[in-house]
UniProtKB/TrEMBL annotation:
This protein's name: Thiol:disulfide interchange protein
GO cellular component: periplasmic space
Similarity comment text for this entry: Belongs to the thioredoxin family.
Species, as recorded: Yersinia frederiksenii
Primary localization: periplasm
């Protein structure tokens, strides 16, 4: 009986090892991801998402993919959104507000994926207005900005003051320097692990496989 039990355990371990080996081997450079020529510095242990408020696929990912995947990879990477200012009529204004709100969330210790996140509230206010209600803010940038500010109960004066924070300005500079170079490769949303590995979204089959790929890349 003991020998039979040992054989069963051994067989089970062999199967598990085979499955794990197959899972790792399933992800290959050039098919599932590429190595960026212009690596984003100081990004070890992060999952950067380059996105735009006027990108319908970014909206879909933020609703049903990104939060699900992050639940599975929280122990491996930290979520780090980069807004693309070159896409959308009000891309620059959106970037400024997002940077301000991300900084406030970080200072408050609130996850950017939490429903309490100011960044998330403003982001979805823009998403809902643009994609669901077909709002185009013909009144100009102030009208656009008001949509985001109203979502987080912030005055324009407080926003303008917060925008001068050196941490906010550093964030905007970082986005400006790297977001477009990543986005021009395959569009947005674009996911980068450790500032180096760009996930090829066309190869994503499920949230589970995406999470497994992120885990693999995070450990490389």
């Amino acid at each position: 009986m003991l020998n039979t039990l040992v054989k069963k355990i051994t067989k089970g371990l062999v199967v598990i090892c085979a499955i794990l080996s197959f899972s790792v081997a399933a992800f290959t450079e050039g098919t599932d991801y590429i190595v960026l020529e212009k690596v984003i510095p100081d990004a070890q242990g992060t999952l950067i998402k380059v996105f735009s408020y006027d990108c319908p696929f970014c909206y879909r990912y933020d609703k049903g993919v990104t939060p699900v995947v992050m639940q599975q990879v929280n122990d491996f990477v930290k979520f780090d959104p980069f807004h693309l200012e070159t896409k959308g009529k009000y891309g620059v204004v959106a970037s400024e507000l997002f940077a301000v709100l991300i900084n406030k969330d970080q200072e408050s210790g609130v996850s950017l994926l939490d429903d309490k996140s100011l960044f998330k509230k403003a982001k979805f206010a823009f998403y809902n207005a643009y994609h669901d209600k077909k709002e185009r803010w013909d009144g100009g940038a102030d009208e656009f900005l008001k949509t985001g500010l109203d979502a987080v109960a912030m005055s324009k004066e407080d926003f303008e003051q917060a925008l001068t924070d050196p941490k906010v300005q550093a964030m905007l500079k970082r986005w400006k320097e790297y977001a477009y170079d990543v986005a021009k490769i395959q569009g947005v949303p674009a996911f980068v692990v450790n500032g180096k590995y760009l996930i090829l979204t066309k190869s994503i089959r499920s949230t589970e496989s995406m999470a497994d790929l992120i885990k693999q890349l995070a450990s490389q």
